[in-house]
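PROTEIN SPECIFICATION:
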Amino acid sequence: MTSVTDTTLFPAVPDSADAVLDGLDPEQREVATALHGPVCVLAGAGTGKTRAITHRIAYGVRAGILQPASVLAVTFTNRAAGEMRGRLRQLGAAGVQARTFHSAALRQLQYFWPRVVGGELPRLAERKIQLVAEAAARTRIRLDRNELRDVTGEIEWAKVTQTVPEDYPAAAAKAGREVPRDPAEIAGIYGAYEQLKRDRGSIDFEDVLLLTVGVLEDRPDIADQVRGQYQHFVVDEYQDVSPLQQRLLELWLGDRDSLCVVGDASQTIYSFTGATPDHLLNFRTRHPNATVVKLIRDYRSTPQVVHLANGLLGQARGRAAEHSLELVSQRDAGPEPIYAEFADEPAEAEGTARSIRGLLDAGVPASEIAVLYRVNAQSEVYEQALADQGVPYQMRGAERFFERPEVREAGVALRGAARAGGNDVLLDDADDLASQVRAVLAASGWTSEPPSGSGAARDRWESLAALVRLAEQFATARISAGAPAPTLADLVAELDERANAQHAPTIEGVTLASLHAAKGLEWDAVFLVGLTEGTMPITYARTDEQIEEERRLLYVGVTRARVHLALSWALSRAPGGRASRRPSRFLSGLGPGSAATGSRTRGGGGGIERGSGGRKRRGPVRCRVCGRTLTDAGEMKLMRCEGCPSDLDEALYERLREWRMKEAGALGQPAYCVFTDKTLMAIAEAVPDSESALGSISGVGRRKLDRFGAAVLALCAGEEVARDAAADGPGEAAEQASGEPADD
C-alpha cells in the first residue's frame, strides 16, 4: 500500500492560492479552478482524483471564494475521509469538514434530535448481525452463519433503497436479487428486526440516514439551518451512492447547484449494497450546465498494466461500459503481466508464495505486495503457503495501527517525555527529534536492528520502527521547509492528527484481501488468484448486469498494481482432481499473442514443477472416516470431513500446542510457521508412530519433517521433549528470514 511515511506527507504549505495549483496536470488544474456551478469529474483509476478535488477545495479557500466551514466533502470510508482531511490541512485549508455520509448525518442528527423529538438520540446498535439473529429466532427461523450474514445484507439493501418490510418481496424480485431465503421469510425477519430495535430504543447505521432525511423533509426550519451552514459540497466515489444517500445529498443542497461529484462508472462494484452509477451517469441530464472534466492520465500503473486494464474494459457491455475511460499511463515501461496456470489450488497458492518470495529477495517490500481473491474463503490456502515460505502477511481489515497496544504505549511514553522536556533523563544524550524518539522508544523495546524472524516480537518492533521512521521524516521535512527544528511536543501533536485521520505508517507484511476490500488501495505487486469460471465471474452472477459488475471487479483488481501483475488460475480444486475448470472468460483475448501483452507460464507443466525439487502430483484426498473425496483445504489437512466424528487425542493436541509455542518463540517465528492448528489437529488425530506416517500428513513436508519430526514423534509416543537449540544448527532463524522454503 502507499507508504504514508514518505516525505511528501510533510510538504511546506503553499504560500498562495496560485501555488496550490503548482504540479497539477491540465485536467486536474481545470477541476481545481472550476469553483462555480455543478462540476462532474470522471476520474479513472490512478489519475489523481483525490489530489484534484483537495486542491480544488484548497484553491477555493486560499483564494477567498470558499469559506472552510461552509464546505462539506463526503466520501465512503473513514480512511478516505481522514486522508482528505490530512491533505487539506497540508494545503492550508484546515477547517473543511471531510466526512463519510454516515458520520455527517450522525452529527446533524445528534445536534437536532433534542429539538425535534426531545431527549438524547437512541443508542446506535454496534452489532447488527446479533440483532438479526435474535429477530430470526423471534420468527422461529433458523439461520446458519452464512445465511445470517446474507439476510443482514438484504436488510441493509432494503433500507438504503427505502423499502419497508412488507414491500421487500416485490422489490427484491423487481431488482433481480439473489435472495438467501424465501423473500417472505426475509420480510418477516426484517419486520421483527425493526420491532426489536424499537423495543430496545436503538437505531442502526441505515436509520441514521433515514432519520436525517426525515428530519430535513419534515422540518424546513432545520433544513434551512443546515443549508446555511454548508453551501458547497464535494462527493467522492459518486458511482457508489445509494438512493438514500442521493436523497440526503439533495436535501443538503436544496435549490442550489454548488456541487462537485467525482467518480468512475467502471469501478461500480457495490450494487449489492444498493449503490448505483446512475446518479453519476445522469448528472449531466440533471445539471445541463455542468462542467464535465475527464481525468485519464494514469500516474499509478505502468503502460503494461494500463494496457491490460483497457483491454479488459474494451470487452465490457452495458451503460457503464459506454462511459468507460481509456487510461494513458504516465509511467515508464515495466514488466509484462504474467499469466499462470496450475494443476490445483494448493499448487497455485504455493506458486504464488514462491513468486512473492522472489520479489522479496529482489527488494520489493512485503507491504507493497498483495494477493487478491474473489471471496474470503479463498484466503486459507494462501495463508498456509505464505506461512510455509516464512513470509509475513496481514489480512485486510486487521487492527488499526494507532489502536495497537505497543503504539498506544509508545504514544503515552512520547507524551510523557514531551511534558518532562529537559527533565527526562532518557533525553540527556539526545540532541535532535529523531534521536529523542529513538531514546524514548528504546525503553519500549525498539532496537536499531530488528529481531530475527517474524512473530509477535517482530510485529511489535515493526510498529515502533514505523514511528521512528515517521519522526525522522517529519523532522527532515520541517527543517527543509525552513521551519524551526520540531520538538517532541510537535511530533506528539502530529501523531494525534494522524491517529484522528487514521493515517498509519506502513507495516511490513504481504496483504491478503478480497477484491472488494482492495478498492481504494494500491501496491507495487498484485497477484490476482483463482481466476476461473464460477469464481470470476462468481457462479451466482447470471444476468448481463451482474456479469459486467464482476468484470468491473476484476478491473479494480488489475488497476491496484503499480508495476508487477500476475493473474493465475487452477484447473482443479484438489490435487489429483479432474482438470475440468476453465480460466475466466474475462481473460479471453488478453493473454499473450492477443491485444493485451503478457507472458503465460505453466509452472513446469500446468503449474507443477518437475524434477527433484518439484511438487509431486498427488491423488485425490479422501476422508478417512466416510471415504468421500475432499476438496476443502481445511478438510484435506485433517483428512476427514468437518462433520465426520473426530478421534482427536486432546491431551496430545495440547502438548503439541505447548511445544509449538516454545519452538516458535525460540525461532522468533509466528506459531503457524512451525505448524498450523489444522496440522496439529491432524497429527493429534492420526497419532503417527513413524516418520513416513508423519510425513503423509498434509502440512508436514520434507523440511519440517527433518526439523521437527523427532520431537513430534516423541510427543506422540508420550515422551517429554526438551528443546535443544543447538540441534537447529547455526543461523536457523536467519535461514528462515532469507527466504528458503519452510516446507517442500
Q: What stands out?
A: DSSP finds 29 helices and 17 strands in the chain. The longest strand covers residues 561-572. Confidence is low (pLDDT under 50) at residues 1-9, 593-619, 725-744. The radius of gyration is 28 Å.
